[in-house]
Specification:
6-stranded parallel β-sheet; Rossmann fold; alpha/beta; 211 residues; 2 domains
Amino acid sequence: MKTILWDWNGTLLDDVRVSYDCLNDMLRLYHKPEVPTVDAYRAIFRFPVKEYYALAGIGDDLFDEVAPRWMEDYMAHEGVCLLRDGAAETLRAFHDAGFRQVILSASKRQNLLGQMARFDILPYFDEVLGLDHIYATSKEGIGRAWMERENVNPADCAMIGDTLHDADVARALGVRCILLCEGHQLKSTLETAGCEVAEDLEAAKRLILED
C-alpha cells in the first residue's frame, strides 16, 4: 500500500499567523524586539525550535520558561486556525485512491488530536504520530519506529511538509519529499533542500497522483 506521511502545522493546518503572533507576544513579555513581519518569522523559523528561539532573541537561559508559555498562548488562540486551502479535498483524493495517510508531527500528540477533531478529516488517517512533550524536537525516531512496525516500504512512501526539517526527516527515512510553500518557511529556503517544492496542496496532489 502506498503511504503519505503528512506534517500537520503549516502543511495541513494554516497556523503560521497565529504562531507568529504568539512569538511576538513572548518577545513583548520579555522586553525583546518584535519580529516585524510574517516573512521575517518564516526566514528564521527552523528545527529544533530552540535555534529559532535564539534567532528571535530568546536564548537558552529563557527557553525552558518561554516554551511552555508560548504553547499556552498558542493553544488559547489556535481555535481561529483553519485548514489550508484544498486540504480536505486533497486528503479525500488520496483516500479514494487507496493511499494510507499518517500524520507525522513534531507537535504533542494530545494537542494534535484536539486540533484535528475540529475538522471532519480524522477518518482519512490511519495513524496520528506525535511527540509526548511540547518542545518540537525531531520526529525522525517516531516515524522510523512506525515504518518498521508497519513494514512500510520507503519506495512506496512520500512525506509532505513545509520545512527543511521535513526534508531531513524524509531523507533519513528514505522516502520521497514534497515541500509546500506558504507554510512556516520561505520558498527560497525550501528550494535549498534539493527535493520537490509545490506551490500548494493541489500541486502536491498532482505530483503524486500523476506520477
